[in-house]
Amino acid sequence: MNRTFILVVITIMFINVTISLSAVSTDEEKALIDKITSIKNESALKKLIGDNINQLVTKWKFDYSKIFCKVLKKHPSENTTKSIVCFLKDTVISSKYSSVKRYLNMVLADVITSSEYSSELKNIAMKAFEKSPRDWNRLTDYFLKPENQKIPLFNEYLKWRLDASDESSFDFISKVFDNTDERNKIRIVRRINIKTENNETKQVKFLKAIAVSEKYDARLKNLAKKRIDSLKKGTDQLVAQLSQVNDENEVKELLADKLKTRDDWQGFDYNIFKKAIEQAESQQTKKILIRYLTDNEYRSENLIGKILADFILSPKYSTSLKMDALTIDAIRNSACQNILLEYFSNSQNKQTPLYQKFFNLCLVDSSDDDSLAFIEKDFDNFDVSEQQKIVKEISLTFGCMSKKQIKFFKDIISSKKYNNELKKLAKAQLQILISRKQEEEKKNKERQSKLFEIKNGLYGIERAAKRFEKREKPITLKEIKKIDSVYNYMEELFVFYEKEKGVDIGEIKKAKEEFNKLRIRIDNIIKSKNNHNSSKNHSGKVKSLNIPIDLKKNILSGIKLLDENRREEFVAKLMNPFEKEKILKKISLEEFVKKNFNEEKARQLHNSLKIALETSPSFSKEGSVAKFSIEANKRPITFTKIDGQWYMNN
């Protein structure tokens, strides 16, 4: 069932709406709930709802979760309930939208925590549940009840919390620990994930309490002691390794398994950086460790800001090292900036090179409200020559905070306490700022009224559609790749203009709608032309292809997965298992797909696989390797048969 047909069916079902189910009347919603309640198998449900909930209009997502909740509360048959849970399971797994996963998790949580459903359904719902800590509150309340800690699902949930190892998870583990059996107690102690050994963390205190408590047996106490010792050794080893790094890549490799996400920084003992810097003999190593924090992708987080401020203000480190840490990135971190602003507002702390550098960085960042306020506060403490220098060096980037700059210059011009030379400089700077403002407004009007690139792009795509419609021959892979590159260019333009100031968002929205219609139109033309001609050669006779049935089935399965943008499932199912094993030792499947198999590459492979279905492959002597040579591709598409199953090598 193609996307267009699904959307048409759904649109008719919900009264010609294009916005959301919020516009659906109570009677229509009731009719839909009754329809779903009467369904007996998953395929019927898919026909009603659509093969993939991702295709629905964004605003429908939450309403669908409410409708499913209402259906389940009507106590439909076991078969209907199972069909719904299995449908949600497939949708949660395949969905690329985190919001879809979150909303459907609410429905799955209803099934898991309700006494009205069988163990089988609860197990299916548990497997489908997206393991996201923000959605765990409902399950946490459920599994905190002692009676629910005796069911098998509790062990599964406990494993999730152990793997997550965040503060919330550890609070949960602490509450249920004494209620669990000895086997689970040992499992918990062994699996507690502590990112570093820090005597202040809850995890270490917890292990130490076990090690000295009389209520636990000797085996558990000894295990807790060994765990603490191993963590201590692991941290000492990490500090020693960090203190000898020669470049930032080494730091990333050493911390790769500890600091993958923003959440990983919470509870991380950043004192290891201090220890490593103290132990490092090389000044270069000290700078590398500082730079890692300054340039880290999570530098906007409060924790990183506090770390940087601590380094910059600590008396333990040399002025040179602190000057290296004090960068524009450091003061653009709001947490770091706030600490430094408070520190340097004290007159005792202004007689240092650090203050001068901080003040100069505030000049660079003076379009920021807080930076400009700091400059204004100290402005009168400088002599005339320094004041003139400050006025000259204030950043004149026109932005949301430029009103503050305009006021700053106007105050100097109107004040009697400043000399004529300084007022003259302020007038010149003010004129530059106003001119830039006028220039920016002029550009915005041009962008708003014309948007030349987008209109030209749409015109080009429409011409391509008309050209393809007149064609009798199939659309070639080279042409498909070319139109794909135009699609990517247009998407980049939309992203660019959506961020631009002064652009009419309504105009952009209309252009995107037109672009999506043209794209669907061209996709349908390509399918129609290529499918119609796929079984014929130039003389009109049917080709005789030697593609084995099981290989053809795999290729068709791969095309379907790419049709539905299920790239992770495609890689999991069709990638050569030996290659996959090597990759998964270094990186998760999700990360691999994100880095190496983006939507553009998936589209190109999708088109190549379609052409492969029309091509006779060449085989190895054993018949276990099939190669499809495709004219537009640099390399052939190769499949290898392993244990009776065909897998892609490339």
Write the layout of secondary structure elements.
Elements: H1 3-13, H2 26-38, H3 42-49, H4 60-73, H5 78-94, H6 98-113, H7 119-128, H8 137-143, H9 152-164, H10 167-176, H11 182-191, H12 202-212, H13 218-242, H14 248-255, H15 262-265, H16 271-279, H17 283-295, H18 302-313, H19 319-325, H20 328-332, H21 334-344, H22 353-364, H23 369-379, H24 384-393, H25 402-414, H26 420-449, H27 452-470, H28 477-499, H29 505-533, H30 549-563, H31 567-574, H32 577-586, H33 589-596, H34 599-612, E1 618-619, E2 625-628, E3 637-642, E4 645-648
Antiparallel strand pairs: 1-2, 2-3, 3-4
Task: Give structural notes.
67% of the residues lie in helices and 2% in strands. It has a 4-stranded antiparallel sheet, with helices on one face. A hairpin with a 2-residue loop joins strand 3 and strand 4. The radius of gyration is 32 Å and the shape is globular. The N terminus is likely disordered.
Morphology: globular
Structural class: mainly alpha
- Report the count of strand segments: 4
Spans with pLDDT under 50 lasting ≥5 residues? 1-25, 51-62, 534-544
Strand content: under 5%
